[in-house]
Design goal:
This protein is of the alpha+beta class and about 80 residues long. It has one helix spanning about 60-75; strands at about 1-5, 15-20, 30-40, 45-55. A hairpin with a 4-residue loop joins strand 3 (about 30-40) and strand 4 (about 45-55). The longest helix is centred in the C-terminal third of the chain and has 15 residues, at about 60-75.
């Protein structure tokens, strides 16, 4: 997954994520690891590649639905 961030994160940094999709009954909690980070010169942001390491068991279905919705909107 790629995130656009204001600050650069070092590769291998560990993250705790809370994702709040509007349609989910509760926030999705996950841990991730930074894979790479590159500055986007046009926006002064950092494109940061992360790998989802763990998603709380109760949140897995909500996360999968979120991914499917994103993919569907990108390829109608």
């Amino acid at each position: 997954m790629m995130l656009e961030l204001k600050n650069r994160l070092e590769p291998e940094a560990r993250l705790e994520l809370t994702i709040n999709p509007e349609e989910a009954p509760s926030p999705i909690h996950a841990t991730a690891r930074v894979i790479w980070s590159n500055k986007d010169k046009s926006q002064e942001m950092y494109n940061t590649g992360i790998e989802i390491a763990n998603i709380e068991e109760d949140n897995k279905n909500s996360f999968l639905k979120l991914l499917c919705d994103v993919i569907y909107r990108a390829n109608p």
